[in-house]
What does this fold into?
Amino acid sequence: QVRLVESGGGLVQAGGSLRLSCAASGFIFSINVMGWYRQAPGKQRELVASIASGDRTNYTDSVKGRFTISRGDAKNTVYLQMNSLRPEDTAVYYCNAQRSSDRPVYNYWGQGTQVTVSS
It folds into this structure.
């Protein structure tokens, strides 16, 4: 099992910045992808950004140039630096991880952290 714990959400004005952190614990040796998803009220959960082995990153179009995903030195922590925040970024943000040892692929989720951007 993998446990994911997020932190860093909060309330910020439009144009501001927040940094989300996610720490993984448990059987993390084969984690090969970590990422951030978000879910706004009445909407489906969507991928925001992910980082895979070799530090390959992927971003949804709406956050490109504003958000940056990165991993800590220990590789069991992932960060999401969010700049130039907009009201439409308001959502619950969830940390996600996948392990290469899981067949079929299994998604591990954190409990979520609220990000609210006021206009």
